[in-house]
TrEMBL record:
PANTHER family: FLAVIN REDUCTASE LIKE DOMAIN-CONTAINING PROTEIN (PTHR33798:SF5), FLAVOPROTEIN OXYGENASE (PTHR33798)
Keywords, ordered alphabetically: Flavoprotein, FMN
Any one GO molecular function term: FMN binding
InterPro entries on file: Flavin_Rdtase-like_dom, Split_barrel_FMN-bd
Pfam families tied to this protein: Flavin_Reduct
Coiled coil feature spans: none
Native organism: Halogeometricum borinquense
Protein name per the record: Flavin reductase family protein
Membership in a protein family: Belongs to the flavoredoxin family.
């Protein structure tokens, strides 16, 4: 079968089902009034390493932005927490729709921890967290892409080998489609050609 994206049911289902696995940015922010927000985004990745910049794409633009994007833009900061298998259930809980004054940290049973450089909490239980200073935003269709320069990193010693992140120790979880996720349990290596 071939055709335009909507010929496959919906562009969302086509892209989210084929572009897999996707890393999950568990984005924590602080609103201007001081309240915390925590939400998962599977449309996320590394934008560049010079300067080190991460991105997540959030539904909505302008006044219709979701809390994470709006808070990051208004405060100039967010934290990109890496989702690992031990916090996957909690991450999923933060995708629930809460009342406006609801606290996703409390709802999911995770702990907000102070960041070192930015004014946004990180998830204390996350093995890896990146404090990001807002670098730029881009409205693309019905979404806002938020880019943040990494200004500080928190990496648990348990996932390091010789001072570097060891992907065999980092049990990162990837997003597939629907209710499906992937573990990084089946790995293989290939030598890169010259």
């Amino acid at each position: 079968m071939d055709g335009p994206p909507d010929a496959f049911g919906s562009p969302y289902r086509l892209l989210s089902g084929a572009v897999v696995p996707r890393p999950i940015a568990w984005v924590s922010t602080r609103a201007p009034d001081g309240t915390h927000n925590l939400a998962p985004y599977s449309f996320s990745n590394v934008a560049t390493t010079d300067p080190p910049t991460l991105l997540f794409s959030s539904g909505g633009t302008g006044d219709d932005r979701k809390d994470s994007a709006r808070n990051a833009i208004e405060t100039g900061a967010f934290v990109y927490n890496v989702v690992t298998e031990d916090v996957a259930e909690a991450m999923n809980e933060t995708s629930a729709t809460l009342e406006p004054d609801g606290d996703e940290f409390e709802h999911a049973g995770v702990t907000p921890a102070d960041s070192v450089v930015v004014d946004a909490p990180r998830v204390a239980e996350a093995t890896v967290s990146f404090e990001c200073r807002l670098a730029d935003t881009l409205e693309v269709g019905a979404s806002t892409v938020v880019l943040g320069e990494v200004v500080h990193a928190h990496v648990d010693e348990s996932v390091l080998t010789d001072g570097k992140i060891d992907t065999r120790k980092l049990d990162a979880v990837g997003r597939l489609a629907g209710n499906e996720y992937a573990r990084l349990t089946d790995r293989f290596s290939m030598e890169r050609p010259p």
